[in-house]
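Aim 2 progress update. The chain analyzed this quarter is reproduced below.
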Amino acid sequence: MDPILYDSFDRLLTDVSTPQVVRDIEADGSTQDLWQQIIESGFTDAMISEKSGGAGLALADAFSLFFLCGRHALPIPLAYAMFAKHVCALNGISAPDQAITISPLPVHGSGDIIDCRNVPFGKLAKWVVVSHTAPSGSHKDMLLPVSDAECSDTGVVGSLQAHLCWKKVPASAIVLKNTVPWLEIAATITASLMAGAMDSVLNMTVGYAGERVQFGRPIGKFQAVQQQLSVLAELAVASRMAAELGCQENPDGTPNGLAAAVAKARASEAAGTVVSIAHAVHAAMGVTAEYDLQLFTRRLIEWRTDFGSAGYWNRRVGDAVLASAEPTTLEFMLPTFFAKSGYQQNFD
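Predicted structure tokens:
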């Protein structure tokens, strides 16, 4: 990505997505001002083609924007909205300039009912991308207005998720005829958000270990703490690398399915350990509502099961490896990740 674009977006989120703004929105505050500032910046149209008035970013370029959304705990579904607006443009549809999220997939309903559980950012979104299979077997990808749904809380403190239920497909639904693999897309975006959140957790934890003094010296000087910090850093960096590789594209602009699977599996596996180490190093300070660490660790715990757990995606990768004719897992995986980078290796 262009470093100027990255720095510009980073500065924007530093100004508009402060910890206090995140707390206010989690406490049922309005997102109208925040969303308006993002719209005015033009980043909601980042993935729409230039001829349609956007920046024309490819998925690989948009990774850095997704990463920064997680790094700043942005409390609106901007990352999902970017891709949703891109798909709408491909369908020749002008997407609404409102918060758009993606429902966990697939969604099945009883009769005309469409019931979406644990929708990320469901409390705040105005529209939801739903990939719906009716009892008859017919399938549609749609944008459904949240205003026509029954919205219920998940019961998790501070969560922005919600259960959304439509008794029937509303008349204002927007049908997307050019379908895309929404599950892989949402998993890849979520892995990128998680990588950004882990980066913030790492920075906060290393900083705290350098400041907190015990027995006359910073706790970061103790070997046991240093070992834990090294594990945290390894997991955070590995998750970022996997998420960035997961944003590689097929020729049609959709994610590489196996790379997306590895990205989400890696991030989901790492999240539990990252959170545990961060809170262990921070001790009692880390669990206080006034301290910012929990703004990121709560999201990591929630995101790790969104759009498929580590177990689900590891099974997808394992099935593909077993079905392959390649003699080793390494020879199977290398083309998946390095075909576009010119990487070559002789295994003879």
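The chain has three domains: 3-90, 100-176, 182-338. Residues 102 and 129 are 5 Å apart (CA to CA). These observations will guide the mutagenesis experiments scheduled for the next reporting period.
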